[in-house]
Amino acid sequence: MSLSQQVIATSFGSPDVLTLLDLNVPSPRSGQLLIKVEAAGVLFGDTVRRADRYVLPTELPYEPGNEVAGSIVEMGKSVFGFEIGDRILCRVPSKGYARYAVVDAANAMYLPEEIEFGAATALLGQSVTAYLLTRHLVALKGKAIFVEAAAGGVGIQVVQLARQAGASVIIGSSSTQTKRDFALGVGVDLAVDLSSTDWVDQMLDATRGKGLDVGYCSSRSTAQRLVKCLAEFGTIIHYGVESCAAPLLESCAGVIQNQRFTRFYLPGYFTPAYTALLNSAGSSLMKLVVSGHLKIHADTRYSLQDAAKAHRALEERRNIGKIVIEPWGREL
Fold this sequence. Notes:
Layout: E1 3-9, E2 18-24, E3 32-42, H1 44-50, E4 67-75, E5 87-91, E6 100-104, E7 108-110, H2 117-120, H3 126-135, E8 144-147, H4 153-164, E9 169-173, H5 177-186, E10 190-192, H6 199-206, E11 212-217, H7 220-226, E12 230-239, H8 253-256, E13 260-264, H9 275-291, E14 300-303, H10 307-315, E15 323-326
Parallel strand pairs: 8-9, 8-11, 9-10, 11-12, 12-13, 14-15
Antiparallel strand pairs: 1-2, 3-4, 3-6, 3-15, 4-5, 5-7
């Protein structure tokens, strides 16, 4: 256990700037755990930072990876409640695309055997996002909603959780027929192609002319276009990396029809004020996954050597569900 491997970028640019280095295995300090990383989640934010397009400055070298799941192999001093060999899940500030990672014990969560490592990485970001979007921001019982990228990592879970919250009509969009078929299988009532000329009519027909009560959008262009089929007193929720940089929608329709436009940015919840809410969300999500009431789709897997391919697949929207890096490949 003398050497580890980690993906870094010493310059900004395309996925090709990601390189794999051999490094010494880090040592945990007091209050920290050293884990053998079995799975690292890939986020759209990782690709934005790599390209230096994030709303906040990114320093070089860039060491991607904020979601890790694995087993404890060493513990620092003053660590309580864990044992060597425990399966854990943890959010880290960086360096997650690696074979070994040091994590703060205070941020680590015990991972039940029923939840596979790769799927577990979605619980840290995409699942919590979906949970807060459907449980915290708006009431969905009896509402007609729209979910952009319904076959994506967040979208798949929004669809499931919205149905459980009582949404009456769920419309989802996806870029390919394969993804639209997948979204229908997950639970949307109507899957639309936003590049078609009649998607507005399709949504209005599905809502019997009333329009959408809630629209979940991850892109600014979709949020702007969705105004055409938003009901009176409807809400557009713009979430994800793009939402924190995009200017407000330029439309007076929202004022005239009492419509609301809001943004959701998960890192904004990473403060002491929301600790209880996030802990509650995490506990609820774990129970939903273990009970089978929430299915996480994380079938797109890459090795550390193929981190660039993982970024390229995400940027080109080729994935269905969560993209995961498996640092140990077939040795996993």
